[in-house]
Amino acid sequence: MFIGPKAHLFYVLFFFSLETKPDDNFQSTRIRARKGTTDKRKRHLRILREDEAEHHLRIFLKMAWRGQLSRNIKELRVLLCQSSYSSSSARAFIENNYKDLKSLNPKLPILIRECNGIEPQLWARYDMGVERGIRLQGLTEAQILKALEDLVKVGAALKA
Fold first, then answer.
1. 127 with 158: CB under 8 angstroms?
2. Could you tell me how far CA 31 lies from the centroid of its own chain?
3. Can you tell me the mean pLDDT for 99-111?
4. How many Cβ atoms from other residues are within 10 Å of residue 144's Cβ?
5. DSSP state at residue 17
6. How far apart are the first and last CA of the chain?
7. How many domains in the chain?
8. Band of the pLDDT at 33, cuts 50, 70, 90?
9. Which residues form the Ribosomal protein/NADH dehydrogenase domain (predicted)?
10. Residue 3 clears pLDDT 80, i.e. is over it
11. pLDDT bucket at 63, cuts 50 / 70 / 90
12. Residue 121: which pLDDT band, with cuts at 50, 70 and 90?
C-alpha cells in the first residue's frame, strides 16, 4: 500500500496526538484518542505492548531526518555502475530506499546516474551551488544511509 506524503504526515501527527495510559493487562499500554476524535479514527486504534510502542517511536525518530532532506538539500545524485560488484550496495540502497525518500520529498530531484565502470558516489548539492560528495565503494547499505544522513546534517549546518 502506497502512503503519500500528506497521508504519512497525517498518520504521524495522529500518532503523536494519542495519549498512553497503563492498562491492567501484563505491562501493556492502551492507546486512546483524545477527546473530540471521530469514531472512524477510534476504530483504527489497537492495544500496543510497551516494547511495540517503543519500537515504533525508535523507528520514527531514527528516520525523521528523511523528511528534512528537501529542506537541507537542493539535489541528490547517485553515481553507480549497473554491473560491477563495487556498486552492488549502492544498487541495493536505491532499490530499498528510493521510494520512501521520493514519497517524503516529492519535489527533491533525486538523480540516479548509471555509467559502466564508474566508482559509486553520492553527491548532494546545497544552496549557493555548494556540493559535497562521498565515495560509496566498500560501504554497506546501512553505512550509505548513515552517509546520506550526514550529508543532510551538513546542509542544515550550512543554512545556520
1. yes
2. 25
3. 91
4. 21
5. T
6. 37
7. 1
8. very low
9. 82-155
10. no
11. low
12. very high
